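pinging the channel bc i need a second pair of eyes. not urgent but kinda urgent?? the chain im working w is below, pasted from the shared doc
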Amino acid sequence: MLIDAPQSDARTLAVIAKARELRPDKPLTHVVNSHHHFDHSGGIRAAVAEGLTVITHHGNAAFIEDVVKRPHTRVPDALSKNLKPLKIETVVGEKVITDGTMTVHLYDAPSEHSETMLMAYLPRERALIVIDLY
């Protein structure tokens, strides 16, 4: 699981490549979109092109769907070059994801920065991941 698709296609593809390099035996299947701002969602199309399922706050679903369906014909991006359907899951309140070895809790975390914010908690690691919340 990747938290955010940062900045742009190039940056997100680099992050995905590094994650796959660091854990070649662990499939990367999901990207959690912490919130809709461009510096956290600018690479969503690249993540979709890589086959990742997008997990986002239910209030961001229409935004993500719109971003993914828009054509990029003047400057083709990763998704334009490798069309894949959008796979999206939304969070209302809380969502728990586990693969049997690791568990991630995703929570709504509305703030002045974004009403449609998510944060992640990893209980075994006792780590809370908050982005632009404080």
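so The CA atoms of residues 54 and 77 lie 18 Å apart. and The radius of gyration is 14 Å. — does that match what u expected or am i reading it wrong
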